[in-house]
Amino acid sequence: MRIALISPYSSGPIRGNITTVNRISSFLVRCGVELLVLPADTLSPAEMERQLISFAPQLIHGFHALYCGGLAQRLAVRLNVPYVITITGSDLHDPLLRNHSETVRAIQSAQAVVCFDASEAAELAGYFPHIANRVAVVAQGVEVLPVSAADNFGLTEDAFVLLLPAALRPVKRIEFPLQALAPLISQFPAIRLVIAGGIIDQDYAATIRSMLSDAPYAVWLGEIPRERMGSLYARADVVLNCSRFESMPNTLLEAMALERPVLAVDIPGNRTLVRHDDTGLLYRDQKSFSKSVIRLEGDAGLRTVLGRHAGEHICASFSPQNEAQQYIRLYQKLIA
User: Which of 54, 83, 120, 173 has the most CB atoms at less than 10 Å from its CB?
Assistant: First the structure.
C-alpha cells in the first residue's frame, strides 16, 4: 500500500499537527505502509506533484481541511486517486476557516473525512449534512514520552507547578492563567505557572512577555525539545489547557499518559479526553478555575487519583498502534 500524507507544517514551533503527522507516519511505516510525507510549508504544489508522480500513491491524505484539503483534492484529481482529509481543530471550530471556500470544496469532494471523536463527527455532519456517510472517527494515539528525574528546569522542589504547554498564539489563551492566578499568589505563594512553547504569533508573544514582566509567579521556558517534554510533564503538579478551542489536544494526551492530573477548560475538544472529577478537572470561567487550582493545591491524594485514572483511560483508549490500523482499514476500503 502506497500512501501520501500532506502535512501543513514540518518545521518551526511544535504544533499539534506536527506531532500528529509524525506519530501517524511512524506507526503506518511500522505496519508496512509505503509512505511519502509532503510538508506544505516547504514544498510547492509543483514539487509535490513531481514527487507524487514518481511515487504513484494509491491514496492521498491531507491533514487540516483548509491548509491541506485543497492541495489534496487537486493532486488527487491529477493522479486519479481517492483522497482523505483529517479534521485537526481550527478547520472545524474556527468559523472563518470552516466556511472558507477552499475548506468547503475540499470537504464536499473528499472520499472520506476523519474526525478524532464522535461528537466532532456529528458537529461536522451538522455543518455538511450531505457528507455524513463519508465521515469516519479515528481517535488519536499517544506515545508515552521518556522522563529524566534529573531534569528539574530550574524549579524548586517546593514549587507547586502549573504547566501550560502551548505555543504563543491567541487561540491558546495564555493570558487567562496569568490573570486568573494573580489574586491567588498572596495566599498560595508556592504556585508557579510554567509556560512551554515556541512563538507562532509575534504580536501576541510580545503581549505575553509584557504580562510576564508583571507576574513573578510565572515563567516562559520557550520551546522545549520533545525529548525533554516528558520530564517537564513529570515535574508538573498539574497540567493546564486554556484554549479557545481544541480537537483532542496532544498535550493533554501526553500529560495524561504520564499520569499527570489535568485542569482543562470545558470545551468539546477537551471533553473528548477529560471526564470531570474522574480523569481530570474541567473549568468554565475564572471562578471555577481558581477553585480548582486551590482544590488541587491542597489535595495531593486527589492529584494522584486523577492522574492514575487519566493514565488508565489513555492506555485503554488511545493506542497509536490502533490509530494506525484504523487508518489502514479506511485506506483499504477507499482504494478497493
Answer: 83
Apex 48 CA angle, 44 and 49, nearest 5: 115
Q: How many domains does the chain have?
A: 2
Percent of the chain with pLDDT over 90: 95
Contact by Cβ (8 Å): 164, 232? no
Q: For residue 109, what is its C-alpha cell?
A: 469532494
Same domain, 311 and 171: yes
Instruction: State the Cα–Cα distance between residues 111 and 113, nearest whole angstrom.
Output: 7
pTM of model > 0.90: yes
| Of the candidates 111, 231, 242, 239, the residue with the CA atom closest to the CA atom of residue 179 | 242
Select from 92, 86, 132 the least CA-distant residue to 244.
92
Per-residue model confidence (pLDDT) at position 15: 80
Question: Does any domain span residue 281?
Answer: yes
DSSP conformation letters of 74-86:
HHHHHHT--EEEE
Q: What is the pLDDT of residues 195-226, one digit of tens each?
A: 999 999 999 999 999 999 999 999 999 999 99
* 253-264 tens-digit pLDDT: 999 999 999 999
CATH number of the domain residue 284 falls in: 3.40.50.2000
